[in-house]
Design goal:
Chain A: Its main location: membrane. The complex is a heterodimer of chains A (295) and B (433). Chain A has eleven helices and four strands; from the N terminus they run E-E-H-H-H-H-E-E-H-H-H-H-H-H-H. Chain A has 295 residues and is mostly helical. By secondary structure, chain B is an alpha/beta fold. In chain B, helix 3 runs parallel beside helix 4 and helix 8 packs parallel to helix 9. Classes of the chains: A mainly alpha (295), B alpha/beta (433). At the A-B interface, helix 1, helix 9 and helix 10 of A face strand 8, helix 7, helix 8 and helix 9 of B.
């Protein structure tokens, strides 16, 4: 068997595959953050909590309303996204003219409130959400056993990432959005409702987090703290990719998933640290991030 | 979080040191009091027992993780179990009221230690219960020994708490890593599971458990074919599970706890680890973990527990009362908190004293006989030795309800389960065997 650094090639293939799947997941989450920061200049610290709300909404929907997985995948992002719009209208709008730090503190506070409330109601152990019938089982790939659900996560995350990138970079609506953040007064003067677009953009970012939450629900136990563990990693991904760069967030997410996956084989003790090591190096060499535009 | 802890330490530093001196001076006098009282009593031949419950109140402090990873195994439920013990006792000892204080240690040894110092200095606390994260327990028991106050550790796993870290001032009640490894690993090796791959949480507790398991496996003729130390906490275990699958070991042992164990088991089931002929061994799994996993994922898993709600009439009756108050079945830790508090209060009542040495001696003399343990013995090193249970998680079809999850396969007698005193590193018993 061919070996690379003492690891059989087949094992390495398996690990690369897993890295890519985790990477797609990181990409999806950092994409939402990048959209919100890139277009609204809000550092959304509630992103992890909104991801967790997505997973919880799917779980509670299944328990109390009989909502199935596929319906949850569509409805939950809409509901949680709408909640995001309410937050934007009632709270974030009032501080949009202040320093970024205020937005960070506000969203961080909201995250703590969401988490604390759910901890009080449901405890921290969490519950499991069954994998939908159509996606259970797996394939034998020769080098590994790939659960069907993980393959689905990879495909779904990549499709959604591409769709969002296309929406913002290649459509007229996306052009309005980008113009609206560059110069709101001028765009407003053309008769475009900029405040509405800002609300919708925040809603979209939050909906992406909730979508990731629904995707994650069958993979990990659904618990109130599931988001805060992930948030810091996702922030590191956004910083490495360049704050606000949409393509940067997607590509960096995938790359970091793979790097983390390889670390888990060669030196597992460092698996939680490796992304931050990369972040430090990137900040030293390219402070604006790999795909960032501003210096 | 660190900033707050530091700030509070700065603020409390000077006054606390001063008051510690004062309180230790007072304590000397307080300890001398029963002696002189007894002397006076004999002189007067009054024959009436002299009450020595300091400031006419029995104060119990409950310290635990109330909001983090370990919340569900002790947390607010443990506080309620403690309150149940106080209520069942009648709310007072020999006419002196019992007061319960509680605090969240946020799994920080710093926060825990400062809280307990404050309780001792300002509240004149008599006993500290709960005590979950091993790091917090070790820090707190050190202070309790310095300040001559009693502690009962119910939630912690590290067996070092009554080994190299033993003190005359604390008791370890529910379980520790020694019987976990001894019970589960030995049973599995005996059944033919003789090659192991270990997934270890990369911190003190994981290392301790890993060491105990390696010892048990090799001593019983098995081998360790590989191990991975994963960061704590880890949410995605797919890479490690894949490596475990590639190792060819018969048994994949999980030397971790809480969300790490739950995540590892969930991932293992998705990757078909059991279907491909390997078995899983969870070494520290609580009832709330099994509940979170669901029986579909957890079925067939063997584990060792210090107690289970569905052991007999007595445990069922108590658990039902607990369930009505908390809407969850109690974990072994929560039951242990009830049992240890009751045992403590009984000793206070019997000696009519809340002096640490007096109460500790009485607790040691009296076997523990309640819904938690039968003929439990508190050894000189502070280990409460009681029977442990090797259980198997039921399949969904065997289970009759949400909390009906274990089949007890074997009762492991306490003497066999816990580390023998002959092997102890504890300075209190060393060389006594």
């Amino acid at each position: 068997m061919t070996m690379i650094f003492g690891i059989p090639l087949m094992v390495l293939f398996g690990q690369l595959m897993l890295g890519l799947i985790n990477g797609a997941f990181y990409a999806l989450l950092s994409l939402g953050l990048a959209v919100i920061f890139g277009l609204l200049r809000i550092i959304n610290f509630a992103h992890g909590a909104q991801y967790m709300l997505g997973a919880f909404a799917a779980l509670l929907g299944a328990q109390y309303l009989g909502l199935n997985y596929w319906a949850a995948l569509i409805l939950v992002p809409l509901v949680v996204g709408a909640l995001g719009i309410v937050v934007e209208r009632l709270l974030l709008r009032r501080i949009q003219h202040l320093d970024h730090l205020y937005g960070l503190l506000l969203t961080f506070g909201l995250a703590l409130i969401f988490e604390g409330t759910l901890v009080n109601l449901f405890g921290v152990s969490g519950s499991s959400y069954p994998i939908p019938e159509a996606l259970s089982g797996g394939f034998k790939l020769g080098f590994m056993f790939l659960p069907t659900y993980r393959a689905w996560v990879l495909v779904a995350a990549l499709v959604v990432c591409f769709a969002v990138w296309f929406l913002i970079e290649r459509t007229r609506l996306g052009a309005y959005l980008r113009a609206g953040t560059e110069n709101p007064e001028l765009v407003q003067a053309f008769g475009i409702n900029v405040p509405l677009m800002v609300s919708l953009t925040y809603g979209l970012g939050v909906a992406l987090a909730a979508f990731a939450g629904v995707l994650a629900a069958p993979l990990y136990p659904v618990s109130p703290t599931m988001g805060s563990n992930l948030l810091i990693v996702v922030f590191a991904v956004v910083v490495i990719g360049g704050m606000g760069s949409i393509l940067g967030a997607i590509l960096t997410g995938l790359a970091m998933g793979v790097i983390e996956g390889l670390t888990k084989v060669f030196y597992p003790e460092a698996a939680n640290t490796v992304i931050f090591v990369v972040m430090v190096m990137v900040l030293m060499l390219r402070p604006a991030g790999l795909f960032g535009k501003e210096a | 979080m660190h900033a707050t802890a530091n700030a509070s330490r700065k603020v409390s530093c000077k006054p606390s040191r001063l008051s510690r001196h004062i309180s230790s001076a007072l304590r000397v006098r307080r300890r001398a009091l029963p002696l002189s009282a007894a002397l006076l009593g004999t002189l007067l031949s009054a024959g009436v027992a002299q009450a020595d419950i300091s400031d006419d109140t029995v104060k119990i402090g409950y310290l635990a993780d109330m909001s983090g990873t370990y919340r569900d195994l002790a947390g607010p439920g443990g506080l309620d179990a403690l309150k149940m013990a106080v209520e069942d006792f009648g709310g007072s000892v020999n006419g002196k009221p019992i007061e319960v204080l509680s605090a969240d240690d946020r799994n920080s040894a710093d926060v825990g230690a400062n809280t307990v110092r404050g309780w001792i200095d300002q509240q004149n606390i008599d006993m500290v219960g709960g005590l979950v994260a091993s790091s917090v327990s070790i820090a707190v028991t050190r202070i309790l020994a310095e300040q001559d106050t009693l502690g009962i550790v119910s939630g912690s796993a590290a067996s070092s708490i009554t080994n190299e870290h033993c003190t005359p001032n604390h008791i370890h009640w529910v379980y520790d890593t020694y019987p976990l490894a001894n019970g589960t690993a030995k049973a599995i090796v005996d059944e033919g599971g003789d090659s192991w791959f270990l997934l270890t949480a990369d911190y003190a507790f994981g290392h301790a458990l890993e060491g105990d398991v390696e010892k048990v496996v090799t001593e019983n003729g098995g081998t360790i074919v590989g191990k991975i130390r994963h960061p704590f906490p880890t949410s995605d275990f797919s890479s490690y599970i894949l490596q475990a699958q590639g190792s060819g070991a018969k048994i994949v042992g999980l030397a971790n706890a809480g969300s790490d164990t739950v995540n590892a088991l969930t991932t293992a089931s998705q990757f078909g680890l059991v279907q491909s002929g390997q078995s899983l061994a969870g070494l520290l799994i609580f009832l709330n973990d099994v509940h979170a996993l669901g029986l579909n994922v957890a079925q067939g898993l063997q584990l060792t527990t210090g107690w289970y709600w569905d052991l007999n009439e007595e445990t069922r009756a108590w658990s039902q009362r607990y369930y009505e108050r908390n809407e969850r079945m109690p974990t072994m830790v929560q039951a242990g908190i009830y049992s240890s508090t009751l045992h403590y209060l009984n000793a206070v009542a019997a000696t009519d004293s809340d002096d640490t040495a007096t109460v500790r001696a009485k607790m040691g003399e009296t076997p523990v006989n309640d819904m938690f343990a039968k003929n439990g013995i508190i050894r000189a090193d502070g280990r409460m030795v009681h029977d442990m249970y090797l259980v198997k998680v039921k399949s969904p079809s065997e289970s009759t309800g949400e909390w009906d999850v274990y089949d007890v396969i074997r009762t492991i007698p306490g003497q066999e389960a816990y580390r023998p005193l002959a092997d102890s590193q504890c300075a209190l018993v060393k060389g006594q065997g």
